[in-house]
Amino acid sequence: MASPTPSASSSAVSASPRVHALLARLHAASTAQEKSLSQSWFYLKRLIAFYLFSSTWAAAADDHMRDKFVALEEDKCQFMYLIARNSGALNIVEAGTSFGVSTIYLALAVGQNIADQKALGKTVAGRVIATEKEPTKAARAREHWTEAGDEVAGVIELREGDLLETLKMEGMPEQVDFLLLDIWTPMALPTLKIIQPRLRKGAVVFADNTTMVRPLYKEYLDYIHDPANGFKTTEVPYSGGLQMSVYLPREGN
Q1: Considering only CA atoms, which of 244, 219, 250 is closest in space to residue 232?
Q2: pLDDT value at position 54?
Q3: What SS3 class is residue 82?
Q4: Residue range 34-52, pLDDT digits in tens
Q5: Dihedral sign of CA atoms 159, 162, 167, 170 in order
Q6: DSSP secondary structure string, 190-253?
Q7: 17: how many CB neighbours lie within 10 A of its CB?
Q8: HSE on the CB side for 101, CA within 13 Å?
């Protein structure tokens, strides 16, 4: 009897059935929110406000988003997991953790990369530094990581508060291999500039929804497309857009 065809998730990501079930449940909940009329209307209003009044955010928007996943889509998460595994990333910074869904994928990759290195007799350490400003979201993220269990335990460090401050605190890794920017768009470039001095040559940087809200990313995109800043970059054609950049600074920069 032929074996059943594995799901796209199990083919891409190495994890226990329990973690796969958790991720499937979280993605389903996030997708349901994103496809709701109220959420579509919210995004449309934000774009209209930007085009008409140059308004990028408001306190009411914070209230609306407080209980929203705004998680990376499953295919993007799988892609990032594979990139992290392929590159052997040991230290990852995730700017904008929300309910911690994508964090699980990144932590799986880092944990498995550490195990690979230890199997070769090497002494290594690594972690995912996650950031979240909203306390209720941070609490939900911790619940999800606890549910994921040993496969991510001990790999994630959550820094609560303004990431422009928490990412400057002591204890940051000297070298960062991978940066995910999944945050309020005006924060993308300031966050990149904080982490850039720590990026190793060949480090990967992702920014989400760079097609859907491209005008809001103008400063960030101008920066990474400027050869003087050391990035090679391309748009990966996922829903909403996904900018993938590799840090390849010239010698002496």
Answers
A1: 244
A2: 61
A3: helix
A4: 665 655 555 555 566 665 5
A5: negative
A6: HHHHHHGGGEEEEEEEEEE-TTTTGGGGHHHHHHHHSGGG-EEEEEE-STT-EEEEEE-PPTT-
A7: 8
A8: 26
Distance CA 186, CA 165 (A): 15
Measured over the CA atoms of residue 32, residue 210, residue 58 and residue 140, the dihedral's sign is positive
Residue with tokens 């995730």: 94
CA-to-CA distance for 73 and 80, rounded, in angstroms?
11
**Four-residue CA torsion sign, 23, 32, 12, 97:** negative
Structure pTM?
0.86
| Rounded distance between C-alpha atoms, residue 143 and residue 153, angstroms | 12
The residues, any chain, with a CB within 8 Å of residue 64's CB and separated by 6 or more, are: 42
Sequence length of the chain is 253
Task: Express each pLDDT in 11-21 by its tens digit.
Answer: 899 999 999 99
**In the chain, domain spans:** 15-65, 74-247
What was the pLDDT predicted at 4? 44
pLDDT in tens, 113-167: 999 999 999 999 999 999 999 999 999 999 999 999 999 989 999 999 999 999 9
| pLDDT tens digits, one per residue of 89-99 | 999 999 999 89
Task: Name the superfamily (CATH) of residues 74-247.
Answer: Vaccinia Virus protein VP39 (3.40.50.150)
Closest CA relative to residue 199, chosen from 89, 108, 113: 89
DSSP letters spanning 92-154? EEEE--TTSHHHHHHHHHHHHHHHHHHHTT-----EEEEEES-HHHHHHHHHHHHHHGGGTTT
Both tokens of residue 124? 């290594």
CA-to-CA separations, 102 to 27, 134, 222, in angstroms, rounded: 10, 17, 26
